Amino acid sequence: MARRKKIYEGKAKILYEGPEPGTLVQYFKDDATAFNAEKKATVDGKGVLNNRLSEFFMTGLNMIGVPTHFIRRINMREQLIRSVEIIPLEVIVRNVAAGSMAKRLGLEEGTQLPRPIIEFSYKDDALGDPLVPEEYIIAFGWASQQDMDDIVALALRVNDYLSGVMYGVGIRLVDFKIEIGRVYEGDFMRLIVADEISPDSCRLWDIATGQKLDKDVFRRDLGSLTDAYTEVARRLGVMPANTPNTSKPTLIN
Known about the structure:
By secondary structure, this protein is an alpha+beta fold.
């Protein structure tokens, strides 16, 4: 197999040149990071679980008419995706006060919010991904007012879908973040959901016990991250009952 050209490497994924124009191969690493990469570890099997879970969620969104960059899963760690122009924002949807929001506002973690609240952070690791108001986004040209209206609509549809799926398996969707990309078809541009949707990018609590089943397990040293992610996958019927294949790739450099 020919070596693929690396396009980009982030904290949790690597993007390679795809087999066809307009495509990329997204590879999920086992690296875990928190606090803007101040805390790091390698968690065996994390990439496999996130690949399968992101496939599950992106496929579900595509099926209900929410466009995503996902095309198909290639193997246990890779998926074929559409190449998109990423808008430099993290779109955060909150249903319950937790994490930084609870700290900023002095709210008790777990407080149900009166409605889903959408926040935006500017994607820049050196700056710590600061929160930015919509006025900044439009003024600096990161997105237009029409883009923002479309982004909010997409984010709320993703929230409805994820909340329902998670509730059905006894999990509370506390919050999540997504990225949005632009794709061009001739003169027509549209916005689609990109990056990933996995326990790395969501807060997930067991409805009955409050047990955390997301990256807060790693952030707060609450136990095995693999066990938490495996439990999410098990409830959703994503992974078989046996231990996931955690083998490292040998054909990609």
